Structure formats: structure tokens, C-alpha cells
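User: My advisor, Dr. K., asked me to get a structural model of this assembly before our group meeting. I'm new to this, so sorry if the format is off. These are the inputs:
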Amino acid sequence: MNYSDAELKAAAALVRKALLSSLPDVSDYKPEYSPEFIEKMKQLSIKLHKRARLHRFASQVAAILLTVLLTSSVWLLTNVEARAFVKIWATEIFEDSFVYRYFVEGTNDALKNYDITKLPSGYVEVVNERNDTSHFKMYQKDDSIISFMYYKISDGTAQRVFAAKRESITINGNQGDIYISDDGQVFDLIFINEKDGVVFWVSSDVKKEVLVELAESIKERRN
Amino acid sequence: MVGYLQMLNTGEERERFAEIYLTYRNEMHYVAMSILHNPHDAEDAVHQAFLSIIKVINKFPAVKSDEAKAYYITIVSNKAVDIIRERKGIIDADYDERIASTVIDERVLGLHIPVPETDDILAIALSKMPAKYRDFLLLYYDGGYSTTEIAKVFSLKRSTVQKRIWRAKEMLREYYTREAQE
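Assistant: The format is fine. Below is the predicted structure of the whole assembly, which you can bring to the meeting.
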């Protein structure tokens, strides 16, 4: 005998109801979960949290890329002779985030290549995307991620960082900030090379000291 | 970049995960225990089920719904069966067609669903099928899971899932004919 998909769909719904009605009331069933199981489930939750943080970071990167592309293309048309330097950069503080705004005379220098030269062992590159004004890389080791982005500043560029706390920091003589997530597990480090008009952004769940070392190891690649 | 973003989840997913876990863990454990009869293995099945559930965590708009409950239960019962297969060294015939899983009776392996009280012969036939095939039809036709999603949940190739659904439909046709004749 033949049947249609619609008939099968209706039959499947009836079977699902039979399944549910066959389940006993387990409100009094309270198994004693082992510490190993609880720890495994906790790790699963942390994994999701890290992915959520990463998503937020990647969304911010996407927003910056768009802003940089729009502003730089306008600027290139009108300021061919302009010289490079960042005139003003400022941060605004919001309830859940900090926003950087850049006002510059700009530069027509090409974006140089930079690398983190002291990457902790075991991390492998999983993303590497570059355009004329920005470069985004991501490294992964198990559930741990290091995101590294740098971009050319142009007038009107804005960047938002979602974080609860901020501390000032100096990286190789450049002013910057380190941001700490509300659970204290993820750090964002941003510093600005005013001379070259480049913003560096490193984000990870590694220890704060390690993140600072990573930022300090960023070097221009000459090849 | 866009492709990579699509792989990532939103911040709400952690809360959803916690809600699913707190709502269904005991029921899932109960079902796993009824199949495995061992608390350690039952925990293993529940953990495996959650590893799969997070791959399709936004499948159901409401966590507390009949559909969500039925298919989280279905997933954990299948994970429990996988543990039995693994322990007994059984290779699923769908993974390797040269080896049939004759060591164990597939008709009794998995979650028992009573025959629904209905005149719908197709539903009665479906409820009597081996869980291995019945569950894929339920997930696909009632749960709204795509073959890609089922493949993710059970770590199978999409072609394997398609093949099993096709076989299940063929098998259902036989069960349906038999039921109609009785």
C-alpha cells in the first residue's frame, strides 16, 4: 500500500504523541549525577559561552571592516596628498561597551603586514582574511581562540568593544587599553600606533599576562 | 568572513542550553537508564545527546514544547543504543553495507513506543517499526529536521541519512500493507 508524505507527516505526529504519553511522570526521579558528568556538562556550557563571545567579536570585526572600507574609499578619492598621522582618537563609555572614534588627516600608505611573533604552542591559524585596509586572523587550540586584527584608521572610523572593565596599558610605547569581560574570562587588548595610523586588536581567553605578551610580540613582517 | 560568521552562535544559545539541560536532563537520564540499566552509561548517553543537541540548538522555537521534548528523548535513546552497539562491537549496516548487524535484534533495540490509540493504520504501522528506522522518519517528518541536521546530530554522512530514510519508507510500506490486511 502506498501513502503520501502528508499522510506520513500526520502519522508521525500521532506516534510522537504516543511516545510522550508513554513516558512516566519523572518529577520524583532525581538521579545523583557524578562529579565527572557535571564537569563535562559545565565544559559544554563554557564552550558555548566562548563561541558566543567569539561571535560578538567577529560581528564587531565585520562592522569595522565595513566602516573602514566605506570611509577609506571616500578618503582616497579626496586626499591623495595627505600625510599619515592620527590627529585625535577618543573613547566614549556606554553602559555595556566602549566606543573608539578616530578623527584623522589620514594616510595613503598601504597597510603593512604584521604578525604575532610569539604565538603560544599548539595554536593553529583557522582564519586569515585581508583586504586593503584591514587584516583579520584567528588561531585555535581546542576550545581556546586567539583573534588578531589590525586596520588602517581613516576619518570617521568607529569601533565598539563590549566589556565590563577597562585598564590602560602601554604596548611598545603605544597607548592602549585592555578590556575584561564580565566573567573575567576573556580579554580584549587594543592599542594604536599613531605614527602608522594602525589599530591593533587582540582578543582571547588566554591569561591576561599572556595576551599582553602576544601584543608586545606583534612585529611588522618585511618580506 | 561571512562564511565563518555563519558557523558561530549567538549569546542566547548558552541560556537556551541551560534551559534544555535543566528541563530535560532527568527525563533523558531516565530514558537512557531504561535502555542501558547502568547509571554511568546513562550519563554518557545524556552527555552524547547534549553534544549533538548543541549542533542544532535553535531547532525548536520553544524549549518547553511537545516537539522539543519528544525529539530530545529520541536523540538520547539513539545515543543509548549507539553505546550498546559500541560495547557489543556491532557495526551498523548503514555504515558498512557488507556487514549486517545480526548479533542483536534491531526490532527490540531502542525506545519502546506504544501503539497509538487511533484508526490511522499508517501511524500504527510506523509505531511498530524498528526504532532505528522509525526514529529517522519521526525526526524528518514530524520533528522537521532536515537530512543535514539529522546527519549532524548522529555524526553520519548526509547520504547515509538519506539512504536510511528511503529504506525506512520502504519498510513502512511493508508494515502498512501488513496492518491493512489484518
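One thing worth pointing out at the meeting: The helical segments of chain B are 2-7, 12-36, 39-53, 66-87, 121-127, 131-142, 147-153, 158-181.

User: Perfect, thanks a lot.
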